[in-house]
Amino acid sequence: xxxxxxxxxxxxxTLLDVVHAHPATDPVFRSRDAAAGxxxxxxxLFDSIETVAARHHLDLAALxxxxxxxxxxxxxx
Length: 77
Hints:
Elements (H helix, E strand, L loop, with lengths): L14 H7 L4 H5 L2 H4 L3 H4 L5 H7 L4 H14 L4
């Protein structure tokens, strides 16, 4: 099974679902605020990652990789 097959975060998930399940992803979304020109967690909380990436011209694959990395490297709760 490849790393892409065992993702915990998928493009169809909402930002709220991701941050709620994985608080360590908050800084990843915040790191994209400047590129997006808005606070993503303030304006797109109920949108899917895929929709947000398309709307704000963000690299979806890189965003998903960074989110996964944040989850994998987060200290245990």
